[in-house]
Amino acid sequence: MCVHTVEGATHIATLEGRSMVEYTVAKAADETNQIDGNIYVGRIQNVLPGMELAFVDIGIPKNAVLYKGDVALDDDVEESRGSEKRIEQMIRAGQTVVCQVTKNAIGAKGARLTQEVSLPGRFAVLVPNSQTIGISKRLPDGERRRLRKIIDDVKPEGHGLIVRTAAEGVSSEDLARDVESLTEKWAAIEAEVKRSSQPRLVYRDLDLAVRVLREEFNEEYRAVIIDDADLYEKVRDYVLAVNPELADRIEYYDRDSEDLPLFERYFVHEQLHRALDRKVFLPSGGSLIIERTEALTVIDVNTGKNVGSTNLEETVFRNNLEAADEVARQLRLRDIGGIIVIDFIDMETKAHRDAVASALRQALSRDKTRTQVFDISELGLVEMTRKRVNEGLLESVSSVCSVCDGRGFVLDTGLESPARAGVR
To answer: Is the per-residue pLDDT at 67 higher than 90?
Structure first.
């Protein structure tokens, strides 16, 4: 993981070997856009029964959105999300609520909230005022049974607990320490909430660079290289506190003493420019064309220079297999979310279609962001979704062109009205 700081932002590139697989931009002091994980005291502004949602003032310029399914039910904890109660019976305008941001504001949409607050730690997630108990499904059965016995001893009274994948192999003492830290943090949040009912921030999640490490960093990482001394100290202190055996993998990259900037040394800039291009080349000569629209992202698969050597069906099949693997990598790298439609080249054999769909699912299994993939249709299309939490890579490193307004073309002067053309 390479972490590069510039004025007002931190850029984080994750590489597998020499290949970049993720790129994240954290903008400094961003109180309105990168707020996921933060906890607020909010005030219900208005409730819309027809949309089953409410707009909530959390102290930032744009109101956030609280959907019916994310409203906490105080009167009956056994009642499920599928409650027959209407949203106007659950909350009312002017009511004060404690809520957590689960999705940043994207475009014209406000941030998404939930009243089901959770505090993530290194090994566990604390779910305050809940009876929830859970263990990551990624852990093997034997490890899940071991951790289930430990939970009974470390679970705090009155709160729920979810054990994370990172807890594999950790001792009961380490898990108990993590849970105790989270419990103390929640007690401090409760005290801050009681101080005033004004809409405001009461808990800020860790800096994005540290948060990425909390979610990702494990023994599989060879190093985390940081070119800012202050951030290096902050990250190293965090790793020493939660995972001291990995602290020596946090490295400082001194810009003054090195010949090349960090991102040039690891070819990040070169790969970043390729990740912003609409065309992606496949190893055998085929290509992908990636087009973003307001409603969805469309990916077209082409054979290009890949002419094969046996027959058309085999050539198309091999090209589609390559494309499936690259599509999964590009979705993760570009952080594309929402609805995605992939136009694979038509295959006559059902076994080939099933194999390509299976290859796509297998490649997507490496992506920590939740995805759902449907089978290839008769037209060769795959419909899928990828959870959207943040703005995509393109939006995070660019701004809309003021000349073409993001359309990618400029109208001929003769087609414009005299006023727009500057004619008086």
So the answer is: yes
